[in-house]
C-alpha cells in the first residue's frame, strides 16, 4: 500500500542536525551552485555536443584534418622555414654576382676588353696575318749592313728597305707589341681571371640566373606556393566556429556523460496538457487493485484524478486546495470507505508506462515545504515495499531510501533542513548496482552502498495534507523530469 504518511513523524537524530548544518553552510557559502548557472552550462554543453557530433561526421572536418596533417608535418614546416629564409643576400648567387662585378671592375680586365676591341689590335693582327710586311722582313733578313755603293742593285734594295723601315706600318708593328695595352692584353688573355670572368658572365647573364635572382629577391615567394594555399585554407577552416568548437572539445571529457548515457524518459511539461503516454493520474497500486484512487488513514486530502494537475509556463503544478471532494479512504478495519474530504490534491505515476532498474533520475523542483503538507517525488516498485526518495518536502524534508519489512519502515535519509526555500533546485539520484547517490545542483550530499534496490521502479509524484491548514492553495512545482540509462 501507499505508505508515505506512516513514517513522517520520526524524531530527528543528532546526525540529521549535523547534516542540516552542513547543507545550510553549503547553501549559504556558495557550496551549492546556482540552479540557473547549472542549467545554462548544461544547455550550452548539450547544444555544443550536438554541434560537435555533426562536425565529427562532416566533410569540412575531414578536409581540415587532412590539411592539418599536411601543414603540421615536420617536412612542411621545414620547407616553409627554408623557403621563407631563402633570400638573395648571402646566397651562392649573390656571391657569384659579387665576384663577377669585382672582376668586371678589375682594371686589367677592363683594359683587356678595351684592347680586344681596339683598332690598334685589329691593325696589328692584320699586319701579322697579312703579307703586307713580307717584303720588309725579306729585305731585313738580307740587309745586315749597308751594301757597297758601287753595287747598284744592292743599293736599290737598301734604299727600299730603309723606306719600308720608316713606313707607318713597320713602325707601328715594332712599337705596338711593346705598348702597355698589348702587354696587358697578352697577360690577361690566357689568365684564370679571364676564364672565371667569362664563365661568370655567361652564368649571370643567362635567363635562368636572372629568374633565380628575381625569385630570391621576391618577398612573397612563399605566398605563391601551393603549400601556402593549403596553409591558408587550413587557417580559414581552423577559424570557423564549427572547427573551433571541435578543437575545443576533441580532447575534453566534458561530453563523457552524453557519450555514455541515453535519455530514456523526459518531460519538460511544455505541451500545455499532461502527456498521457508518460503519466497516469491514478496511483499504480490503486489502479492494480480497486481501479480508482484512494487515500490512507491519516491523509486529509483526496486525489482528484488529474483535476488538480496544471501545466502552465512549461511547468507542472500539483495543486493542493481547500476543497470538498468525495473519494475513498482505506480503513484497516472496514476496508475502502467512501468519504467526503476537505482538501483535494493529485498524484502522478509512470507505473505501467515507464520503469527502470538503474540509471539517473533528475528533476528541477521548487523546494517550497509547507509544514502541514508533504510533497513527494520518488521511485517505487510494484510491490510498494521499497522507495527511493528523490525529495520529500513539507512536514519532513529529506532524501534517502525507505524499506518496508513486516510493516516496519527502515529509513536511510539525509535531512534537507537548511536548504533555502522558495527556490528551484536540480535534485539528482544516481542509481547503480550496489550504490545510490543523491545530489543537489551537482553537489553530492548522500550515498548508500548496501541493500540497494535492484528491481524495476517507476516514478511517482504526489502532494498530501497531513495537518489542518489555512495556508492554501499550495503548488508542488516541477519544471522538468529526466531519466538516463547507460548506452549499450
TrEMBL record:
Residues in GH16 domain copies: 249-488
GO biological process: carbohydrate metabolic process
Keywords: Hydrolase
Domain of life of the native organism: Bacteria
GO molecular function: hydrolase activity, hydrolyzing O-glycosyl compounds
Alphabetical list of PROSITE patterns matching this protein: GH16_2
Family: Belongs to the glycosyl hydrolase 16 family.
Name of the protein described by the UniProt record: Glycosyl hydrolases family 16
Naturally occurring in which organism (per UniProt): Sunxiuqinia elliptica
Amino acid at each position: 500500500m501507499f505508505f508515505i504518511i506512516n513514517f513522517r513523524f520520526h524524531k530527528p537524530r543528532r546526525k540529521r542536525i549535523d547534516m542540516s548544518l552542513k547543507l545550510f553552510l553549503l547553501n549559504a557559502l556558495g557550496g551549492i551552485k546556482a540552479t540557473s548557472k547549472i542549467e545554462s552550462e548544461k544547455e550550452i554543453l548539450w547544444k555544443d555536443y550536438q554541434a560537435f557530433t555533426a562536425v565529427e561526421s562532416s566533410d569540412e572536418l575531414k578536409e581540415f584534418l587532412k590539411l592539418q596533417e599536411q601543414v603540421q608535418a615536420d617536412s612542411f614546416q621545414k620547407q616553409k622555414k627554408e623557403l621563407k629564409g631563402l633570400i638573395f643576400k648571402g646566397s651562392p648567387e649573390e656571391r657569384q654576382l659579387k665576384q663577377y662585378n669585382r672582376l668586371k671592375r678589375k682594371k686589367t680586365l677592363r683594359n683587356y676588353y678595351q684592347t680586344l676591341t681596339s683598332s690598334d689590335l685589329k691593325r696589328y693582327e692584320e699586319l701579322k696575318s697579312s703579307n703586307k710586311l713580307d717584303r720588309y722582313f725579306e729585305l731585313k733578313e738580307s740587309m745586315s749592313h749597308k751594301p757597297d755603293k758601287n753595287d747598284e742593285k744592292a743599293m736599290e734594295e737598301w734604299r727600299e728597305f730603309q723606306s719600308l723601315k720608316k713606313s707607318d706600318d713597320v713602325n707601328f708593328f715594332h712599337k705596338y707589341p711593346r705598348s702597355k695595352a698589348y702587354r696587358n692584353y697578352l697577360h690577361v688573355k690566357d689568365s684564370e681571371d679571364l676564364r672565371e670572368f667569362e664563365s661568370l658572365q655567361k652564368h649571370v647573364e643567362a635567363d635562368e640566373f636572372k629568374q633565380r635572382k628575381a625569385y630570391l629577391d621576391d618577398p612573397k615567394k612563399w605566398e605563391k606556393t601551393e603549400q601556402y594555399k593549403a596553409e591558408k585554407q587550413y587557417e580559414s577552416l581552423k577559424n570557423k566556429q564549427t572547427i573551433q568548437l571541435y578543437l575545443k572539445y576533441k580532447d575534453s571529457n566534458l561530453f563523457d556523460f552524453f557519450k555514455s548515457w541515453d535519455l530514456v524518459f523526459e518531460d519538460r511539461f511544455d505541451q500545455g496538457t499532461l502527456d498521457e503516454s508518460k503519466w497516469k493520474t491514478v496511483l499504480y497500486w490503486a489502479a492494480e487493485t480497486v481501479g480508482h484512487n484512494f487515500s490512507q488513514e491519516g491523509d486529509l486530502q483526496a486525489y482528484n484524478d488529474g483535476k488538480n494537475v496544471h501545466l502552465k509556463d512549461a511547468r507542472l503544478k500539483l495543486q493542493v486546495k481547500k476543497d470538498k471532494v468525495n473519494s475513498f479512504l482505506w480503513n484497516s478495519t472496514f476496508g475502502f470507505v467512501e468519504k467526503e474530504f476537505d482538501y483535494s490534491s493529485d498524484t502522478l505515476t509512470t507505473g505501467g508506462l515507464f520503469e527502470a532498474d538503474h540509471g539517473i533520475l533528475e528533476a528541477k523542483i521548487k523546494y517550497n515545504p509547507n509544514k502541514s503538507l508533504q510533497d513527494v517525488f520518488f521511485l517505487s516498485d510494484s510491490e510498494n515495499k521499497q522507495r527511493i526518495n528523490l525529495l520529500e518536502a513539507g512536514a519532513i524534508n529529506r532524501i534517502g531510501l525507505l524499506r518496508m519489512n513486516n510493516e516496519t519502515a527502515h529509513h536511510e535519509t539525509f535531512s534537507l533542513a537548511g536548504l533555502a526555500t522558495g527556490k528551484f533546485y536540480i535534485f539528482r539520484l544516481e542509481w547503480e548496482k550496489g550504490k545510490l547517490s543523491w545530489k543537489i545542483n551537482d553537489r553530492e550530499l548522500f550515498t548508500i552502498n548496501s541493500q540497494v534496490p535492484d528491481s524495476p521502479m517507476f516514478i511517482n509524484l504526489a502532494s498530501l495534507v497531513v495537518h489542518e491548514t489555512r495556508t492554501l492553495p499550495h503548488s508542488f512545482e516541477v519544471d522538468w523530469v529526466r531519466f538516463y540509462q547507460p548506452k549499450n
